[in-house]
Amino acid sequence: MPRFSANLGFLWTDRPLPDAIRAAHAAGFQAVECHWPYDTPAADVAAALSDTGLPMLGLNTVRGNPGENGLSALPGRADAARAAIDQAIFYGADIGAGAAHVMAGFAAGRAAHDTFISNLRYATDRAAEHGMTILIEPLNPYDAPGYFLSTSAQAADIIADIAAPNLKLMFDCYHLQIVEGDLTRRLEALMPIIGHIQFASVPARGEPDRGEVHYPHIFAHLDALGYAAPLGAEYRPQGESVEAGLGWLSPYI
Ligand SMILES: O=C(O)[C@@H](O)C(=O)CO
Ligand SMILES: [Mg+2]
Predict the structure, then answer these.
(1) Domain CATH number, residue 246
(2) CB 15: neighbour CB atoms within 10 A?
(3) Could you read off the pLDDT of 96-127 as tens digits, one per residue?
(4) What is the dihedral of CA 45, 147, 168, 188, to 10 degrees?
(5) How many angstroms separate the alpha carbon of residue 241 from the centre of ligand 1?
(6) In which domain, by residue range, is 243 found?
(7) Distance between Cα 225 and ligand 1 center (Å)
(8) For the chain, what is the domain count?
(9) Lesser CB count within 10 Å: N end or C end of the chain?
(10) Would you say the pTM of this structure is higher than 0.90?
(11) Is 135 helix (H, G, I), strand (E, B) or coil?
């Protein structure tokens, strides 16, 4: 049976993060994940995770200055990128998070590639000290025009190049349906390097029971492939509340 993680960067954003964790638990999610939890004391997050028994699957490195979307592929910004990596890993270790998503940023070209590789080597080494995984995520060019990492092939090449056992692909079905499609075969092919899977309807990025992707098929197929980790519900609720749109979850709890 598929299991699900509530992405608290998009779900229950109307309340403090510890309360969002409790709401996810009450709704039947089996894990949570977040984007940028840094304004909340780690002890408060850890307490909510302990109270509910939910694991925190991951968090993101900070985006950087206004208008930026990550720092790790930006030439000349290694100090800031590595501070962001350290912050994510230390905060993640304090709350028992399994992974940190290292955000590349808006950049292109050889220097950006080399910078990203260098910062990812740093990140995988630091994360290994805490038993954590580093994730990289291709983003679609409608939501993130100019983002350095935009295809699964580019991510796979980087992962092969670095060859660290704790560097994995964040396969966001929403982004990759837009960029590449063929989700069923692509999930199968990339399974050896996938560290986390996220989903949302396409194109609206809402609940998964609408739009151009038939997620019951994707969820069942992943289950049949033996993928047992919780799948990340990273969507913007389209209705009155998160709870009002959770009909898609009920067959699984
Ligand atoms: O898909 C996304 O946008 C997120 O997973 C993320 O971490 C970058 O904003
Ligand atoms: Mg995502």
Answers:
(1) 3.20.20.150
(2) 12
(3) 999 999 999 999 999 999 999 999 999 999 99
(4) 120
(5) 21
(6) 4-252
(7) 25
(8) 1
(9) N
(10) yes
(11) strand
